[in-house]
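So, read this over?
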Amino acid sequence: MTDSTRRIGDLQVQLRTLRDRLPDLQSQVSESVANCESIQKQIDDFRNQLSQKEADYKILAEQISAQEALIKNKNDESKRISDSVSNLPS
């Protein structure tokens, strides 16, 4: 057998081996794609949850700020009334 015939034979064997491996590799790629899509969906879900929590937090912070303003207003009003009462003749 000549050297080139031997090389052709080796290449044909390698080609058959690669063709035999191809379905398994395609299956692995499909599995990996499905896993990536699943992970991406989870990431999207977490981002949506995070956005909702941030919106909830913002609303709560605004409510707390409004309550603090009301408390300050009532304290100021109470002090004014207390000062008015203390200035009344006995």
Helices lie at 3-86. The CA atoms of residues 16 and 22 lie 10 Å apart. The radius of gyration is 38 Å.
